Amino acid sequence: MDSDDELGTYDTTSTPFRVSKYEDVNSKANGRAAVAGPSSKPPSKSRPNARKRNLSPPADDEDVEDARASDDDAVVLVGESAASVPRKGRPKRAASRDPEPSRASKAKSVSRGKGKAKAKTNDARDPSPEVMDIDNLDEIRANVEDEPQEVPQPIQAWSLKRHQDDTGSASWKKREDRHKRELERLQKQCQDALSQRDNLARQLEELFQTRHTEAEANAEQQAAVYESRIQAQEEMIQELTSQLARVDSLTREGKISTLHFLTREAADEERRGVERQVEKLKQALRDRDKVIAEKDATINNQADEIRQIQKELTAEIERSKSLASSRPNGREALSKSRTPSGPKSGVRLEGLKATQAHKMYEDLTNILILDCHCEIAVDTNEEQWVYSCLYAPSDSRCNIAFTLRSYNEAGETEEEVEKVAYTPKEMSNQSPEWLDQLDFLAGEFTFQRKQLDVFLCKLYTAVNEAQEHLEVKE
């Protein structure tokens, strides 16, 4: 070799390697010559422990030949990888041309020197001869330069690598199995927790949905009433106790404190004020009673007039029906015969006009107003007009009696809205088929007064359909 950077010739079965030359001992700074024997450097304490921890088989890049010199000697590396570096913390030894000892021999030599590590007996390579001691470095250097170096072929480590792969795969498989078992256990535990949570949620929902009986509800209501009463009594007792404590403290102090009593003049003034207020309220009550009495009288008078008019109306209706059935021009003759005369003819004429108007409305709508009276609402103290009506078509046997109550109700915009309440009468005497055909007209409902035309249309339609259904069935 002419240069350290050149590689030797190799064939297809050999591995390139690099040979490092020896360094002259005289080139050292201290000028000390190498002496054969053990190194004066203390052995590393961390190395045996590192060997014990590293129990995996060696890799391919560890198959190198390294020679160790004394403390200040150089090192020659021969092997597959030129970048292999000797481990730190161990003494170096001079290299020889003999093959490097195997790991087993190295471990054996270490165990002989320190007595801590046991040599391996199942190494894949044969142990190499021990390293020879060097007496004269100049002579060895001359021999190395003159004679060609015999480099041993690199040792195949396929068996060790395969063994290492098998060992790693087995450990990885065990670890994976352990992780799978742990995952299955955690999943099962999670499923158990979820099922337990669902059971508890279902039980809680059942408890919330448990309905109370009427007796239990009454008991709870009574308990709430008693609780509120007890709380009020406790507050009253506490207030009276505090007042009594204040009075006792004032009486115990004697002359230092004075009690503030209400004087006679102040008591009389307060009594007179209360009497004036009571008298004012009594006067307001008397005025209200008077107004109520006047309204009652007016209502009674109007009710009498309405009843009288209703009787006349009923008689006129019966007479008009009889005349209409006898001759077509009966109404004209009746109107001529009923024309009033005399000093009170104006009043009677107005009454006849109202009667004729009612008759016209009844003939147009086939709805007879049998009664009309005013009632006072209990909650709002307002007047409510109640109309008793009868819908009796002339060509039908079906009729329906009902009442319409007109009243005012507050709307969404705080404005009063006129409404009408519909209430059917004598529905218990009707047949179930007739009630089914009437549909919503068989029950009570309310609507706005401006929708009376819609109500009338629905009434006509429902009664006509019911009549047709009964005729078809017969």
Describe the structure.
With 474 residues, the protein is of the alpha+beta class. The chain folds into three domains: 1-156, no CATH class; 158-209; 298-473, Aspartate Aminotransferase, domain 1 (Alpha-Beta Complex). It is built from ten helices and seven strands. The chain has helices at 46-53, 103-114, 137-146, 158-208, 214-253, 264-326, 330-337, 345-365, 432-438, 452-473; strands spanning 64-66, 77-79, 367-376, 383-391, 400-410, 416-425, 445-448. Strand 3 (367-376) and strand 4 (383-391) form a beta hairpin. The longest helix has 63 residues, at 264-326. One of its GO terms (biological process) is meiotic sister chromatid segregation. One of its GO terms (molecular function) is microtubule site clamp. Residues 105-119 have a biased composition (Basic residues). This is Monopolin complex subunit Csm1/Pcs1 C-terminal domain-containing protein.
